[in-house]
Amino acid sequence: MIVNTETIDEFLARRSADVEDAVRTAAETEILPRFRHLAQHEVDQKTGPHDLVTDADRNAELYLTGVLGALLPGSIVVGEEAVHADPAVYGAIQGDAPVWIVDPVDGTRQFVHGDDGFCTLVALARHGELLASWIHAPARGQLATAVRGGGAFLNGERLHAGPPAAGRDLEVATSHPDFTTDEQKRALLGLRTDGVAPRPCGSAGLEYLAVARGLLDATVFSWEAAWDHAAGLLLVEEAGGAHLTLTGEPFRITGGNALPFTTARDEATARRIRGLLTAS
Prior knowledge:
Layout: H1 8-31, E1 43-48, E2 51-54, H2 55-71, E3 76-79, H3 80-85, E4 99-106, H4 108-112, E5 119-126, E6 129-137, E7 142-147, E8 151-154, E9 157-158, E10 170-174, H5 182-188, E11 196-200, H6 204-212, E12 218-221, H7 226-238, E13 242-244, E14 261-264, H8 267-279
Parallel strand pairs: 3-4, 10-11, 10-12
Antiparallel strand pairs: 1-2, 4-5, 5-6, 6-7, 7-8, 8-9, 12-14, 13-14
């Protein structure tokens, strides 16, 4: 295993460009050729009409699984579609091996409808700690990257989320009501107050990117699936942001979080949003 002779930091310094190439290639070969050209037989439902999967999702994940696993021998790939086929795969996130967490097409609903608001999410983690991430929105020409302790970047330009401007409403992207429990709905009601402007979220990865860019003040999500959050959480952290669960602890990709949780462009905003969620 490479992890016995090379640290993860050394691997990232040497092979990050290869990961970027893999993410771009997956989009160029499996995703973009199907964008706005999906045939009916290339789209299926998983758990219901709002939970879609396409041949682009499946084939991009297969490609990334092969390439990422080869780049870092001994690592394990936990992809959304692999977990759908075999839920036991998800347990690798809590194991000792380095884990690639992959969402091949985040925002599949948008992708199916011909909207450019979709992206590929890849994160590298070990022992529950996020180490690096890649968010690629190919239809928008955007590639955001982050390495723990090394900053966040969009197309090579450093990102600084910064605090929200004083005197305006906080814009907050939230989980759709269809994906929240009654208790979580009550928590979300706390956002319906003066000074806060909640709206339904789109692609989770792109909402995290908006927070890291300072274009969105916060997100509030009610589900734990690591492939939706891992890449974006590290990007926001490295841009100066913060994330908190209802109990005031940072979100853990290994699970067991008090939901919903918030991710915000600075710690003060995260604390303010958490306070509204717990006060309702």
